[in-house]
Design goal:
six-stranded mixed sheet, 6 strands, alpha/beta, 207 residues, single chain
């Protein structure tokens, strides 16, 4: 089976480069709704048997056209919301972004217990996200779609693939596709896109 991890469409908080991690969060803006519609068309030919979304409004709105294309309902899944940035919530200044990048880089370097100020660590995210994924893919024979969030997808995909923290950017409505294998998961596809400066999912460095 295949697990398609999709990032939500654009919100005004994304445009402002705001750290918006607490559900329900900002809704999709006009471009975000267009992106969601295009995602529904993109995934319409796929053998999708279930569509899940986080508790965030933007994730559920993005998942709706995908589900509609397959005559399915969007199922809200606990545990797959964005990593909580704590004291940085709602901020969009350069200093806040730098604080996030420092912690994300620590995760990429293997310190999964490094914690955002007042927020979560990569270990926290993995502890809630991975069991949620395992629950919905158990026994599935075809494609399962899960609409989540950029940093959460990067950290969870790394966990499922046996890595620490992925450094590749996930754009709005970008896809990370994993295929189940005998001993876990392998990466089938990762949508490539240049990072958007200030976007929370652009964190991490390969330097």
């Amino acid at each position: 089976m295949r697990l398609v991890l999709a990032r939500h469409g654009q919100t005004d908080a994304n445009v402002r480069r705001e750290l918006d991690t607490l559900p329900p969060g900002a809704p999709l803006n006009a471009l975000g709704h267009s992106q969601a519609a295009a995602l529904g068309e993109r995934l319409a030919p796929e053998p999708v048997i279930a569509v899940y979304a986080s508790r965030a409004t933007r994730a559920q709105q993005t998942a709706a056209p995908v589900a509609a294309a397959h005559a399915l309902d969007v199922q809200v899944l606990d545990g797959v919301h964005e990593i909580f940035v704590g004291d940085l919530e709602g901020r969009h200044d350069h200093e806040a972004r730098e604080e996030f990048d420092v912690v994300y880089t620590a995760w990429w370097q293997g310190d999964l217990d490094a914690r955002l100020p007042g927020g979560e660590s990569a270990a926290d995210l993995r502890a809630r996200f991975v069991p949620a994924v395992e629950k919905v893919v158990d026994g599935a024979a075809d494609t399962v779609v899960l609409v989540s969030h950029g940093a959460a997808i990067r950290l969870a995909a790394a966990a499922l693939l046996g890595d620490t923290a992925e450094t590749q950017y996930v754009p709005n409505t970008g896809l990370v596709v994993l295929r189940s294998v005998v001993d876990g998961w392998e990466l089938e596809h990762w949508d490539a896109a240049p990072p958007v400066e200030g976007d929370v999912t652009a964190g991490g460095t390969t330097d």
